[in-house]
Design brief:
This protein is mainly beta. It has a domain of 130 residues: Beta Barrel (Ku70, Chain: A, Domain 2), CATH 2.40.290.10. Helix content is 14%, strand content 36%. The strands form five sheets. The chain has an eight-stranded mixed β-sheet with strand order 11-1-2-13-16-15-14-12.
């Protein structure tokens, strides 16, 4: 079913309630480690040569004096600046638009999500379908703008309430034949090219030289 999200752009008059879900469905091969005798071996935590059983080891916040604290008792700092932990994005406010080429040329994609119209939590089938139709119309309005202008829409987009570094998402119009949709791409980092070239290189043509090349044998 995915997670709920509201997409807004006051300048274009767009407000769509959608759901997003991760499209990464590539299955990794299951690799099994075996001992020389054919028994299956698994990586486990080991302390002083003893295998740690489930429940014996937990992660907690501890100061240098050995005092244990709950997370709600702590504050978090980046140098001298206090920072807050991320919260999952519920409203995707479009902050601007960038050229479509930036989507592939300027950023490394870490994850991408597919959007579908939400039913707004309505109970009756008629109300659910009407809500989906309304949200789909708003999605199409945004899709047409992105497709016509050849741009992507940027906005703050955190998929979970973990970490302290905010991430941005980029809405992109996609189409396959007569089918269309919108995806959100989340970028791991900005690409930095250090060996770009200017102008059109000219082919170097070697000219024949007069004279004879000497050889000992």
């Amino acid at each position: 079913m995915g997670y709920k999200l509201q997409i807004t752009d006051n300048n274009l008059g767009i407000s769509a309630n959608v759901r997003y879900e991760n499209l990464s469905r590539m299955k990794r091969p299951e690799i099994t480690a075996k001992t020389p005798t054919g028994k299956i071996a698994k990586e486990r935590y080991v302390v002083n040569g003893k295998v740690v059983q489930q429940g014996e080891m937990t992660r907690q916040w501890v100061d240098d004096d050995g005092n244990v604290y709950g997370k709600t008792e702590l504050s978090f700092w980046n140098g001298e600046e206090q920072v807050l932990e991320n919260t999952q994005t519920k409203v995707f406010e479009i902050s601007g638009y960038q050229p479509l080429a930036n989507y592939t040329d300027s950023y490394v994609i870490s994850a991408y999500y597919e959007l579908s119209p939400d039913d707004n939590g309505m109970k009756k089938d008629f109300d659910r379908e009407r809500a989906k139709s309304t949200n789909l119309f708003q999605m199409r309005k945004l899709w047409e703008y992105l497709d016509e202008k050849k741009v992507v829409a940027r906005g703050e987009f955190c998929t979970s309430s973990r970490g302290f570094l905010l991430s941005d998402g980029y809405l992109r119009a996609v189409s396959f034949g007569n089918k269309w949709g919108i995806e959100i791409g989340v970028f791991k980092e900005e690409k930095v090219f250090e060996h770009l070239n200017e102008g059109i290189p000219q082919q170097v043509i070697e000219t024949a030289t007069k004279g004879k090349r000497l050889k000992m044998i």
